[in-house]
Design goal:
Pfam families: SpoVAC_SpoVAEB (PF03862). By secondary structure, the protein is mostly helical. The chain is about 85% helix and about 0% strand.
Length: about 120
């Protein structure tokens, strides 16, 4: 059942994003920011954590999960360091994921040999 929940929740999130791209004039970058901010707001309202436990990777892998991770990092850093934690927490919480994305994309560019568009 865990796999099924992850599959359909991730699919619904992707379908909503696709509808936003096709039916509105929103650019993909703005939709991505909307997803990250939505994940952070749902985390702040303490709605995202139970949803995440139930949906598994279907909720954690999309950008909603990234926003929630940023929120948790900022909240923890503010509790430890006060006001300066607002600026530190997000970097600390998502550093591993962002670093992994950079390293793996660089390795993929070495393997695939990308070309510039003309």
């Amino acid at each position: 059942m865990d796999y099924w929940n992850a599959f359909w929740v991730g699919g619904v999130i992707c379908a909503i994003v696709q509808l936003l791209m096709e039916k509105t004039k929103m650019m993909p970058g703005r939709i991505m920011v909307l997803l990250v901010c939505t994940g952070a707001v749902l985390g702040a309202l303490q709605i995202y954590e139970p949803f995440s436990e139930w949906a598994g990777a279907g909720a954690n892998v999309p950008l909603l999960g990234f926003g929630n991770t940023l929120w948790k990092g900022v909240k923890e850093a503010v509790d430890e360091n006060g006001f300066i934690g607002i600026f530190m927490g997000g970097f600390k919480a998502c550093a591993v994921g962002v670093s992994a994305a950079l390293v793996f994309s660089y390795i993929a560019s070495l393997i695939v040999n990308p070309k510039m568009k003309k």
